[in-house]
Amino acid sequence: MEADEEATARTLSSCREVVERLVAGHHGRVFGSAGDSFIAEFASPVEAVRCAVDIQRELETLNVELPEDRRMRLRIGVNLGDVMVEGDNLLGDGVNIAARLETLAEPGGISLARSVFDQVKKQLDLGYEYLGEHEVKNIAEPVHVYRVLTAPEAAGKVTGEGRRARHSWKRRSVAAVVVVLIGLVGAVAWLRPWEPTIEPASVERMAFPLPDKPSIVVLPFMNMSDDPSQEYFADGMTEDLITDLSKVASLFVIARNSSFVYKGKAVEIRKVAEDLGVRYVLEGSVRRS
Prior knowledge:
Distance between the termini: 36 Å
CATH architecture of the largest domain: 2-Layer Sandwich
């Protein structure tokens, strides 16, 4: 297990080096990179998309030399709008919508807001697939989303225009911002790398057969603030994550009702996995300032 963690750490470090080097090479700036995500700001949407494509291509080359379970596949969302700089952090609706765009991208893929698409469609030798209008909660205007197609035969083409909205997001688009998130397995592995290794669940003791695809339960997040009234905020974060993960067709996600049975209880992760018949258990905490 220790060898696996060390190998994952090396792979993640290589991934971070690629992102930071290419962002700098395209005149961008990385803000507050964490173990599982990167946020970068660019003055030019064209440079932002060029950087995103270069990142995916270089990581694809690096992945060829790695076993399947060591490969790092990123999803990238690119948005254009207003952001605020606060210390080493980039804040604002521009960042939030870029993060939502990332969730629509496939692993190894890139999704754009139409504000970015309009700026780059005649500037780069790429193709694009229109993914439709996507409603944004509390915002009157929907967001139009495009997927980047990097195959040479797709260059200059736009497909899929005219599709109807299929998703509901929570915030509004607005800065040439690239948000990169590493895939779920890598992210979960690095949520709490300092904690002792958890004993894996026994497949033989599971109450239900494991699904054919990766399965996960998101446990209710703990409210770490001193204000009990913020409990709804922690619950909302958990519910949003369950909803977003449920949109990933390749995942089996335990429903909210089953997950919230464990709210407020001291649980043994291995036992939760066995009771619900899942491979992955995600827990966390939030503090609202």
